[in-house]
Amino acid sequence: MGKRADFLAANRGRRAPMPGFVLLVRERGDGDPAMRYGITVTKKIGGAVIRNRMKRRFRVLARELLPVHGVAGADHVLIGRSEGIERDFGLLRGELEKALHKVMSRPVGETPPRRGSSKDKRKASTGSARMGAGESAKP
């Protein structure tokens, strides 16, 4: 994958967060059974040496596991997390297998339930009265 639009489209697909990375998978629906992958590691993770090391590790994992466990006709995106920098390669391999199985187990149209948004939480909390210092609750 090389175009920014492909990465943004994958962000609307299914996701499987793991300690070392986040896996995004989105079926393209264009009839092409080819599996594509992309890797993203931001500057927040570290300098160029660290980012390139993570990308090399992710590339090896993707080439090894996607042909076996990947979704045919889909885009796969690995987003690096800071916990993945010094993570054991065997652990990363196991996490990617687990993430691919997790994504495959969910039906195509189904998205995981979303947690309540912060806006909903604010509405719920504004309904209660707050007491300041020295105030007491009256029955």
Automatic annotation (TrEMBL):
Record-level GO BP terms: tRNA 5'-leader removal
Keyword Nuclease among record annotations: yes
Keyword field: Endonuclease, Hydrolase, Nuclease, RNA-binding, tRNA processing
GO molecular function (one): 3'-tRNA processing endoribonuclease activity
EC number(s) stated in the UniProt entry for this protein: 3.1.26.5
Catalytic reactions of this protein: Endonucleolytic cleavage of RNA, removing 5'-extranucleotides from tRNA precursor
Assembly notes: Consists of a catalytic RNA component (M1 or rnpB) and a protein subunit.
Name of this protein: Ribonuclease P protein component
Lineage of the organism: Bacteria, Pseudomonadati, Pseudomonadota, Alphaproteobacteria, Sphingomonadales
